[in-house]
Write a structure and sequence with these properties.
CATH class: Alpha Beta
Low-confidence stretches: none
Distance between the termini: 32 Å
Oligomer: single chain
Helix content: 25-40%
Mean pLDDT: 97
CATH topology: TIM Barrel
Number of helices: 11
Order of helices and strands: EEEEEEHEHEHEHEHHEHEEHHEHHEE
Radius of gyration: 20 Å
CATH superfamily: Metal-dependent hydrolases
Shape: globular
Strand content: 15-25%
Number of strands: 16
Largest sheet: 7 strands, mixed
């Protein structure tokens, strides 16, 4: 197959080129490649590496009424994504044992429409499960420093984090951390959006990231801070500690939460100022049924934003340059999490490609969303780019972290 004449977008820049694809891999990138019977005309389109969303909650098994793998992966493909890594909570059972890992993997094998990886969970009392989940192919592990909102997935204290990091370092794996210090969190003083935001202050995130940095240095464990929401927290990243942010922290502030209502509630909350761009941008797609996002009492509303279908379009509509979008949604993720043959358009890489018309500008519309529950805080928000085609290398497969070189 030849993908002919597109503007090929990589983290290095943009160049018009043809792509020759053989056996699901990019075999050649060049100009005026020999004609083949099977060709795709990409003239006038931009060709990105397929996106990798390393932070989604597809709640199968156990809570498929919130989101299932089939709908979630359909939404990803519509948004230019060809791989994802699923979080270990919100599904039931939570993915904190080897047995639960196999159940989650079976759900992916049944229904995933693109490549998939799984995070295991670190919780109090499951240190002996980290090794088995690693052997099963876990991309790494996820822990909460504060209550997760899911009773079955409790928070880790500092001692559990330290011991977990020691074992994860021995496995040469990585720990993802929801970083909010529970000692600085408090119950909201009232039912309003402002009460909720004030109950989870910036200092809670900063203090927690400081702790993670110290433990990473002590144990030698690679650490990744999920959904960083503050510039002060971002300033602490570096060395063995990386971080990500999400489109909603780039787009909205706490003042927007009154307008967004329940669909905009998330933790950490929207802040007083918009977040800066980080090297990794994910959706933190955390859906639920509509009834859990209703009402005026933010103490009762479920926290989580649905957004995996819209991430790339939102970033492009913000004016972020296409090569940067390719980097933060694909290249940097593949490099940080050791995902082989993904995140770039070059010979030997998987033929995972997003063909998009960047001349098209729309808004997020509920009727276009492919989630199990098609609603989002992003409805009405500008997006740039109409998906013409999302190509994958072939049959969906389970991706594992590559051995460090």
């Amino acid at each position: 197959m030849i993908v002919r004449g597109g503007s090929v977008v990589t983290a290095r820049g943009i160049d018009v080129a043809d792509l020759r694809i053989e056996d699901g891999l990019i075999a050649e990138v060049g100009r005026d490649l020999d004609q083949q019977p099977d060709e795709i005309d990409a003239n006038g389109l931009h060709v990105f590496p397929g996106g990798i969303d390393s932070h989604v909650h597809f709640d199968e098994p156990g809570r498929t009424e919130w989101e299932d793998v089939a709908h979630g992966t359909a939404a990803l493909l519509a948004g230019g994504y060809t791989a994802f890594v699923d979080m270990p909570l919100n599904n039931l059972p939570v993915t904190t044992t080897a047995e639960a890992f196999e159940l989650k993997l079976a759900a992916m094998r049944r229904s995933a429409r693109c490549d998939y990886g799984l995070w295991g969970g670190l919780v109090p009392g499951n240190l002996d499960q980290l090794g088995p989940m690693h052997e099963q192919g876990a991309m790494g592990f996820k822990a909460f420093m504060c209550p997760s909102g899911i009773e079955e997935f409790p928070a880790c204290n500092e001692m559990t984090l330290r011991e977990g990091m020691k074992r994860i370092a021995e496995l040469d794996s990585i720990l993802l951390v929801h970083a909010e210090d529970p000692a600085l969190l408090r119950e909201p003083a009232g039912p309003t959006a402002r009460d909720f935001v004030e109950s989870r202050p910036v200092d809670a995130e900063v203090r927690a990231i400081e702790t993670c940095v110290e433990l990473s240095r002590e144990t030698g464990c690679r650490v990744h801070i999920v959904h960083v929401s503050t510039s002060a927290g971002a300033a602490l990243l570096g060395g063995g500690v990386s971080g990500e942010t999400c489109a909603h922290y780039l787009l909205y502030t706490a003042e927007d939460l009154e307008r967004l209502g329940g669909p905009g509630k998330c933790a950490p909350p929207l802040r007083g100022e918009r977040m800066q761009l980080l090297p990794i941008i994910v959706s933190d797609h955390s859906p639920s049924t509509p009834d859990l996002k209703q009402g005026n009492d933010f103490r009762q509303i479920w926290g989580g934003i649905s957004g995996c279908q819209s991430t790339r379009g939102l970033l492009l509509a913000m004016g972020i340059e296409p090569p940067t979008v390719a980097a933060v949604t694909a290249t940097n993720i593949a490099e940080r999490f050791r995902i082989a043959r993904k995140g770039d358009i070059a010979p030997g890489f998987d033929a995972d490609l997003w063909l998009v018309d960047l001349g098209d500008e729309e808004v997020v519309r509920r009727e276009d969303l492919l989630y199990t529950n098609p609603f989002s805080a992003h409805e009405g928000q500008k997006v740039r780019g109409r998906t013409v085609k999302t190509l994958t290398h072939g049959m969906p497969r389970f991706i594992r972290p590559a051995v460090a070189s």
